[in-house]
Amino acid sequence: MNPKWLAIRKTHLVSCVVAAFLVSTTLIAAEITVRMVFLPLSAFRDGIALVSDTRRYVPKPNTRVRFKGMYSALPRPVTWEFNAQGMRAAGWVPSEKREGTYRIATFGDSETFGWSVDFAETFQQQMELRNPAYEVLNLGVPGYNIANVAEHVVRTAMLYKPDLLIYLINPNDFDPPLEIHRVAIHSELARRLECLYRQAGEREIVKNRQSPARVRAFTSELARMTQFCEENRIELMAAFIDEENRSVLKEDPLLDAYFLRPGESKGRVLDVSDVFRQDQRQDGHLSREGHCRLAQRFVGVVSRRGVPRTEAYRPGTPSQPRVP
Question: Average pLDDT in the 56-85 region?
């Protein structure tokens, strides 16, 4: 082989090795810098497992995550704890409810989950404190939209046979499902770039929330959830964080009949927008005090729905908010 050609090939090979080394070094340095300077995004990724169905991801069973905040630092770190069933709970939840209790399953996104608070401070646990006859399950999953929630309801609700299902509806539930990429699970730099990419398109996403296409997608999935609850004899309550979103219920005949028909739909629609407006949010989510107020609101509404009284239930005025 021509010595000149060999020299050129050797030069190109050396250049490629040097370039690969520089790129690798730069990426490693960027990864270290991101981990040192920014709040870690790993808490969310560490707490989920990818699945092949339309939910795309679920809470990772038997996982404990220490969370300090994602967009702004929390006043103190909180702990996200998932049981063996992939639910935010202190222990195993049996499929059959305890005798003399009224079981409530709550579904939704990070607000339902209790993003910025410890487990004991979530509105679900606060509801149980106010009325020992209630058993309130936390099946919220951060990042879920209506399509994810509806699929999660269909796949998990009947595992626990609830008497009532509460869906806490966030305005961003109208958005397209959140994409989770495998590379972002392992790299803090990739997570940060993915987050910046989503934020860059946030304005357009918010603008399109009330577009005919997004409203149709939302009402279709909510109708699916409603039909599932009716078929399995589960009462469904829709609690709106933004009161203006309630108007979408008129867009579908099934939703209109179930939620808005006078008399029969009593207590099936709830406006909790004032609870969120009055709250001093932490990392963009409801604070401990906000969870207490939300619990008090839910307990009051559920009790007025004529919930069957049991031996475990003792009539009385719900206690005042227990703010830690």
Answer: 92
